[in-house]
Amino acid sequence: xxxxxxxxxxxxxxxxxxxxxxxxxxxxxxxxxxxxxxxxxxxxxxxxxxxxxxxxxxxxxxxxxxxxxxxxxxxxxxxxxxxxxxxxxxxxxxxxxxxxxxxxxxxxxxxxxxxxxxxxxxxxxxxxxxxxxxxxxxxxxxxxxxxxxxxxxxxxxxxxxxxxxxxxxxxxxxxxxxxxxxxxxxxxxxxxxxxxxxxxxxxxxxxxxxxxxxxxxxxxxxxxxxxxxxxxxxxxxxxxxxxxxxxxxxxxxxxxxxxxxxxxxxxxxxxxxxxxxxxxxxxxxxxxxxxxxxxxxxxxxxxxxxxxxxxxxxxxxxxxxxxxxxxxxxxxxxxxxxxxxxxxxxxxxxxxxxxxxxxxxxxxxxxxxxxxxxxxxxxxxxxxxxxxxxxxxxxxxxxxxxxxxxxxxxxxxxxxxxxxxxxxxxxxxxxxxxxxxxxxxxxxxxxxxxxxxxxxxxxxxxxxx
Length: 465
Ligand code: 4GM
Description:
The protein is of the alpha+beta class. It has helices at residues 11-17, 21-28, 65-78, 100-107, 124-130, 146-157, 166-169, 205-223, 225-241, 245-256, 286-292, 309-316, 351-357, 363-371, 410-424, 438-446, and strands spanning 2-8, 32-38, 51-52, 62-63, 87-97, 111-116, 133-136, 190-191, 194-195, 260-265, 268-273, 278-283, 302-305, 319-329, 343-345, 375-380, 383-390, 396-401, 430-434, 450-451, 456-461. Helix 4 packs across helix 6 and helix 8 crosses helix 9.
């Protein structure tokens, strides 16, 4: 359950505004909890005064530090046993602009405090002590911070698991691929003399998808040229990478899925997947590669490259070569046949088994993949005999078959299952196989995957002590 605290002079405004419709239902269902704290209750003045004139003069009144600090302390104090302090967000026109991405980041927290100002602002000294994030919902000024806080709470809440029901959740995707939503139509077929576009009545799903994509592009071009430019840049880079599909499949999938940010697409290519703090790089020469270095985000954990000169350059930067792999890509569109059918998603119960057979993977990471429903087990007579999964990068992996069940095609079934699953969800199936794992490489060829010509190196950023 996600908890929101709102420090405000108008608690009833916040409570009323956030207790209707979907957010109200989420509160009732205990998916989220919203508490408004009245700053005035913490005034030490006998008239409940919380504001005063600014030193140095100027228009209007300023909220004083003491009541704001005490109201904040009342929340943080209750949770004093926790070493982790909740983020405190000050809503102000002078903050960082709130975006869908910011909403995703805040939705990962368990508890958030919103501080709503009024008058001309709040005494800077208390802000220095308690605020972690200065955030604005856009370049305009309102009479108070309550509406911006409510806007952000709404946007964050709908990302909390369970808040939206299945049929409501899809639209989160609409921004992801840098295109706006296509126009939609419902009954009647003719309204004010306007007909529903014929293609939508055709029942041809391929044609409909094509038409919708075309409409999305036209609409984005017209209304959001900035987004359209991003879309075009991505499509262009995917096309360029497709000249060497086997080598670049992982970059193409990263861009096509909307996860990748393009940091460079000239003589050097640099794509960053911030979900997994991974850079994918390619450069025309070592000099070009060296010039890309400053663009690698400092929080990067992994760099993937298929050019050996990166190994020298990055080793000097504190990276170490963790693995030499070959990339295997499934470039067909048709699903593979699966012999064994007993393949089911694994739950946290299977974690000890997974950990025992995935020793190089972090326990928290494994749990995260299980919770994301990205690990599947194969069962023989109701007994778990092996598993497969896909990484947060999109790569299929974690393939394991129990010693006692080898040689029966279980690994083949597991990988075919993962490939089909990636295809069905619109992904490009690929995996990275350690270059010396002969058995796994053989399996790839047997299933019809293409192996990359050059190796792919995983470089791991070594945290400096
Ligand atoms: C000045 C300083 C936020 C004004 C602090 C708050 C617009 C936004 C206020 C404040 C606001 C915004 C109150 N107006 N664009 N007004 O997010 O809290």
